[in-house]
Model the fold of this input.
Amino acid sequence: MDRIAEIFTNCAKENRSALILFVSAGYPDMAASEAAAELAIEQGADILELGVPFSDPIADGPVIAQASKVALANGINLAKVLQLAKRIRARHPKTGLILFSYLNVMYHYSLAKLTAKLSEIDMDGILAVDLPLEERDELSGLCRQNHLHLISLVTPATPEERVTRIMAGASGFLYYVSVRGVTGARKKLPSELKQSLDLLRSRTTLPVAVGFGISDGATAAELAPHADGIIVGSAFLEVIGDPGKAEKLLQDLRGGCQK
Done:
């Protein structure tokens, strides 16, 4: 059993959703983002998405977009994010590590070189947020060759026929985008979200994780019975400058993941 499958299997045995945290590498600087990753794992994060800064993010709201801007100003690039990933993996062999990036960055580095490097580091997969279904074969083939998961996204706007095609080539887990919009903490999520998650889970054997808009333990608790994983990004980034607040949020989220 691979690491991601084992994480979700263990979480199911513990009757909880996996806690998945997004960390923007290099924000507010590399040392701080590495400390944030350590804190997240210490407080129970099962999987980390390591975000590669990009100048023109299309799916990211103001918090993550600003984090990318700061990280780029700090000189953070994909090579440095991979170095960060290598350090985290050396300390945490059981934590899931997913590279979160846009295709432009990955193409510039070389998809073949990148997937080989991720395999060497012993990362678990890639989440290419702007990879269209019609263009995924090249990257999915390289991921298979290097024993990596290519995480697929489904949104409320994705037609059913397209959902079926996406699921057919998905691996690791499915990322369900909770809202029609960009990332960012929200006070209220769509009323039909739980039903949508239940339907998606009935159509696949893969774990389904939900992200975009989840900002506290109460929201996590509301969604945990309907999702195999809870993904949090912006809410965590907003408090990483205050370790006390960050720790409290993580504890709140971990408690909310219990079913």
